[in-house]
Write a structure and sequence with these properties.
Layout: E1 30-31, H1 43-51, H2 65-75, E2 82-86, H3 87-99, E3 105-109, H4 114-121, E4 126-130, H5 139-145, E5 150-156, H6 168-177, E6 183-187, H7 191-194, E7 213-218, E8 230-235, H8 237-246, H9 254-264, H10 267-290, E9 294-295, E10 302-306, H11 310-319, E11 322-323, E12 325-326, E13 335-339, H12 343-355
Parallel strand pairs: 1-11, 3-4, 3-5, 5-6, 6-7
Antiparallel strand pairs: 2-8, 7-8, 9-10, 10-13, 12-13
Helix pairs in contact: 1-9, 2-9, 3-4, 5-6, 10-12
The structure holds pyridoxal-5'-phosphate (PLP).
């Protein structure tokens, strides 16, 4: 018996594997596997979300006008050059759908964020991975991978799952080396964590006069609204006009839009979160290094560390009801990614590191 047959390539896609959220027999494990904000979200955002409960029967504003206006004002951007999606994940899918098809390719650094490759493969195009020596995106390698069939280049700055970042001069060099017909998607999911680091820029202002750059951002990380799935992007009028034609009209829910607008107005929450990520990252990084483990220099809300036996270390954390992310499916089988939790969460992680050597099997 034959049934519907998916397009060529669809069944070759390995579905996205999210950070584990459940642990058998443990009611509330400490989830440090998805880089969420352990401090929740702004109180103002929560209140706005609850207030929107009376409007659940209404479709969202298809133009996301309030949030569009609030982002444009805050970041000094032209509102008509913004596009929204169900998380930045959906924006990547729009970009791939609009610019890629069979015979085309996209290029990413070797340890690129997994959702990009899925978005690319779904269009029938191929993802090429440029070597990342020492776990930092390498502009020369990316440019060397670009060929006449390349239509999109994806780079996250800072990057996930490595946490490493590039000085903005490197992003400029990458853009300068790309043909005008190649769209550079600059994924700023963790940009809030890195703003203020010397040499870092989120690229929003720089991209204003670029025809082939799409800067993506999310409310899922520093703003603590991962559950609401709100991502946005800023691009040239021509790129945004292409994405606008294929996006689905109601990706951003009404309550989510209300919460995001309120969250944007609460700078203090984001500042406090980022300061705590910074402090927590230093503590965790130092504890891991004290154990003799290698860590990558992170500018995000997570630390990525190398273990003799990462699978065993993952199991050791799980025995203590802590979920971290084993990076085997990113081609980093010796590495674990640990999200920065609250100060108490970090103490728990460090206590496990002290009690049990996670380099050894449990
Ligand atoms: C580098 C990077 N980009 C994008 C995203 C997706 O974020 P969202 O779809 O929640 O906006 C993530 C989420 O972990 C990420 O790590």
């Amino acid at each position: 018996m034959t049934g519907p047959i998916p397009k060529p390539g669809i069944l070759d896609i390995a579905a996205y594997v999210p950070g584990r959220a459940k642990l058998a027999g443990v009611e509330r494990p400490l989830k440090l596997s998805a880089n969420e904000n352990p401090f929740g979200c702004s109180e103002a955002a929560r209140a706005a979300f609850l207030a929107a409960a009376s409007e659940l029967h209404l479709y969202p504003d298809a133009n996301t006008s309030r949030l569009r206006g609030a982002i444009a004002e805050k970041f000094k951007l032209e509102p008509e050059r913004l596009v929204f999606g169900a998380g930045s994940d959906e924006v990547f899918a729009f970009a791939a759908q609009a610019y890629l098809g069979p015979g085309d390719n996209a290029v990413q650094p070797q340890y690129g964020f997994a959702a990009w490759a899925i978005a690319v493969a779904a269009t029938g195009a191929r993802m090429k991975s440029a070597p990342e020596p020492d776990f930092v995106a390498d502009v020369d390698e990316i440019l060397a991978a670009v060929d006449e069939s390349t239509r999109v280049v994806f780079v996250a700055n800072p990057a996930n799952p490595t946490g490493t970042w590039l000085p903005f001069s490197e992003i400029e060099r990458l853009h300068a080396g790309l043909p005008a017909c190649v769209l550079l998607v600059l994924d700023g999911a963790y940009a809030e964590c890195a703003i203020g680091i010397e040499g870092f820029s989120d690229g929003l202002d720089w991209s204003r006069d670029k025809q082939n750059v799409l800067v993506t951002r999310t409310f899922s990380k520093a703003y603590g609204l991962a559950s609401l799935r709100i991502g946005w992007a800023y691009g040239s009028s021509s790129v945004v006009s292409a994405l606008d034609r294929i996006r689905l009209p109601f990706s951003v829910p009404r309550a989510g839009e209300a919460a995001a607008v309120a969250a944007l107005g609460d700078d203090a929450f984001v500042r406090r979160s980022v300061a705590a990520f910074d402090q927590g990252r230093r503590e965790l990084d130092a504890a891991l290094r004290d154990k003799g483990l290698r860590t990558l220099p992170s500018a995000t809300n997570f630390v990525t560390a190398c273990f003799d036996d990462a699978k065993a270390a993952d199991a050791t954390f799980a025995q203590h009801s802590i979920l971290v992310r084993h990076l085997a499916n990113y081609g980093m089988p010796d590495w674990l990614r640990i999200s920065i939790g609250t100060p108490d969460d970090i103490k728990r992680v460090i206590a496990v590191l002290q009690q049990v050597d996670p380099a050894k099997a449990p």
